[in-house]
Amino acid sequence: MSSVIKVLLAEDQGMMRGALALLLGLEEDIEIVAQVGDGDEIVPQALAVRPDIALLDIELPGRSGLDAAADLRTRLPECRVLILTTFGRPGYLRRAMEAGASGFLVKDGPVEDLAAAVRRVLAGERVIDPALAAAALSAGPNPLTQRERDVLAAAVDGATVADIAAKVHLSPATVRNYLSAAIGKTGTRNRMEAVRAARQNGWL
Amino acid sequence: MSSVIKVLLAEDQGMMRGALALLLGLEEDIEIVAQVGDGDEIVPQALAVRPDIALLDIELPGRSGLDAAADLRTRLPECRVLILTTFGRPGYLRRAMEAGASGFLVKDGPVEDLAAAVRRVLAGERVIDPALAAAALSAGPNPLTQRERDVLAAAVDGATVADIAAKVHLSPATVRNYLSAAIGKTGTRNRMEAVRAARQNGWL
DNA sequence: GGCCTGCTGTGACATTTGTCTTCCCATGCC
DNA sequence: GGCATGGGAAGACAAATGTCACAGCAGGCC
Predict the structure, then answer these.
(1) Is the pLDDT reported for residue B140 higher than 80?
(2) Which segments constitute the Response regulatory domain (chains A, B) (predicted)?
């Protein structure tokens, strides 16, 4: 391995971002060429600096890291994507794979894993926690339809049926139907539990 | 300053904990003498290694970092406490001060702040983000009574009135009364919004 | 063409939730 | 003693929520 690995790092928490950048910078074969704290900056920055690998958090201000990953796949196909997230949710992993990510790492693990994962991804490997992969397979695909997700997502902060109806441009009666369907499919008793369950599985 | 600053680090996210430990370890005058990922281990570890300062996250498995801080105040008074948290919630800051913390840092800021804050706390200063202090003062104290907090906390995951009543050993009618009071005091429209608001302010 | 699925909408119904008023009882304060 | 305060509880009522059955319409599949 002769040349240095160029890394783009997207992470919203300043202290985490700075710490990871410093740590990876200590490795001789790794160089951080861009740091962003907002999902909307990922693609423009990547196009500007052309990194070998993008290290993306999922939950960011602006666009989600998963959306950005899908975009990078088409706009900068030579750039690998390694998702780095707090939550090892089955649905997240599934969506990451569909978005063309080469790896999926949870922030719970030891720091040493990170540089190792970067190198393995660059070597062409797929890096995925085996336990998480098993969970994603056993959990099955997302049972919620697009509309059900929309409505449930609009219900997160305690919005009333009328609020949700206005937000998604549907009749209040229809909103209640979708909520009822989502509650049924998630096996829960009310929308609050349904939201919890959907979040837990990475279905939103 | 002749001797080295001994630091105990409590943080649940493995990667964050490792990264912070490595970073602080790079400073010549700082040594990490203990790392814990569980709130229940803070006090025992502190008593064992007797650090000069404890760097505590608030939201941990086991005991909250705030509870541990209050305990350290009495069990190991010579140990300063610096709270390091994701969420700059007014209620958290207030409770941290009441628990005898010497500083309150949010994880959003740059990493350089951390070592600086540690040194300043050890020098006897109080380290608090001025904007956050202002917010905490303007927000006023927690308006919720103990019971209202209990009931609201039991309502977080979509529990029904009956569930909550069973959990806190109250009559369902009383639970509804408290929920109504909490909704009124938070200026919200339903329990879901009330829970959000209370969380936001660090009142739970 | 038939069949299924998904999206949108209604109306009716039972249940849950939120609000208000009232009550009892203990505590503490003057 | 007199009196406010706060926790706990009940009942009554209106509003919101969850369920169900049904219906029209589009698209995809065999």
Answers:
(1) no
(2) 6-122
